[in-house]
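A reminder before we start the practical. When you read a complex entry, don't treat the lines as separate problems. The point of joint prediction is that each chain is placed relative to the others, so the output describes one connected object in space. Small molecules and nucleic acid strands, if listed, are placed in the same frame. In the example below there are two entries. Take a minute to note the order of the lines before looking further.
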Amino acid sequence: MSNKVRTGLSRYVITCLGLSLAGVTLFGPATAGVLPEDRADVLYFRYDGGGVTINGPSMLVRKSIGEHVSVAANYYIDMVSSASIDVQTSASPYDDERTQSSLSMDFLHGKSTYSIGYVNSDESDYKAKTMFASVSHDMFGDLTTISFAFKSGQNEVFRNVKIDDVKQNDPAFNDGLGKADMESKSFSVGVSQIVTKNLVLSGQYEVITDEGWLNSPYRSVRFFIGTDAQGSQPEKYPKTHSSNSASIRGKYFLPWRAAVDGMYRFYTDTWGVIGHTAELGYVHPLDTKFAGGDWTFEGRVRYYTQTAADFYADIFPRADFSNFMARDKELATYNAITAGFGATYEFKIERFPWLSKGQINLRYDYMTVAYDDFRDATYSLGKFGVLPDPPLAPGTEPLYELQANIFQFYISAFF
Amino acid sequence: MRIRGLFVLTALGLAATGCSSIEPWVKPYDRENLADPIMSFSRAPISQDFLDHVFESREGSRGATGGGGGGCGCN
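Here is the predicted structure of the whole assembly.
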């Protein structure tokens, strides 16, 4: 007896979180002309929203070897407990865990920095191997830094089922192959420019292409049967996906020793999604010590909006309505606002002269997402097989909204 | 075509003069404010990257976030 045990949404959330953590922390284009400082970070995070809880630690260590090489290693664990809106309407709550390890090296040569890295991610139904290479170079009196980066990922997708109450990969998945492949490549160019003694600007352009199994192996679309009933069938996605994104950001030093920054990003892809992201932040250090250390406070607001993918619908007119069909709410039309606040306490310990400084950090963000064309289907389908009383007609349910609390606590040590 | 030609000529002209001839207008001794840790785009990479990809997992958009990008096919 087989049962679906989860939806793909959270699996992709996990994978993205993990891969991306290593992908950027370790492999982001380095500042040319100088190696990153030696440091160790231990982060505990907790994401709680929409029925999904993800928490876990991330540990990052970066150490220089001589004057020209810096090595970074990251170990990361995701612990997931999910009863998301997709899970509520089609499966049972589940728990899962993903581990990831990664390594990168930066080589400094003159005004250029060359970086390479590798990430391995492992969970029960998704395995990913990613390599990365980048180069950045300072020019024009070190006022300008240009960078180029390339990333390549090889991923294997599985579908979990429960057989005799034991979770395992479904051998019938993908027409009996038991797994599916997905390749991803990313190319990006960036430039950072010192404009005045108080202003720095940077821009980045990135192309990402994916090929292979791109949809969730679990999620379904729904469709009308007549006018009052509904049915479901597996999602059908294109086998390719290419996206273009361009961003510009700036940061300005204020007269009273504080900094304000802003960012805008434009996104478009071959699936018809167009996205706009804007962010505004403010960093304010205190002039006087408090509790024996230095304090820095930070506030941030982010706005995001997007249009739906061409093949997205909350409910399709009939079964097999088109070649491609999706009901992933991340492909719907919606807007989101996130507001966050952080505090950093910085200190020195005289007994540890090898420790140049330490930091204790707390951060909290609140996210709210309002969907324009994704409805809360629990009002018609019920939750975990229990029908609502009375059930609403399909297509008349209230629009779905999501609120999430995001906590971070991390300790940083600089050497 | 004229605009494109003008652009090419300008680029060639700049290349012919040599990049080293451009004088930095913000001298190294004027970069004290820029060197302040609060001016870093990401003061805490491990935290900022986590947040960036919470967003990436919740949004259809991806890439150009200032780091190496996503590229995990998470749509």
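Discuss with your neighbour: Helices of chain A lie at 8-25, 85-90, 378-381. What might explain this?
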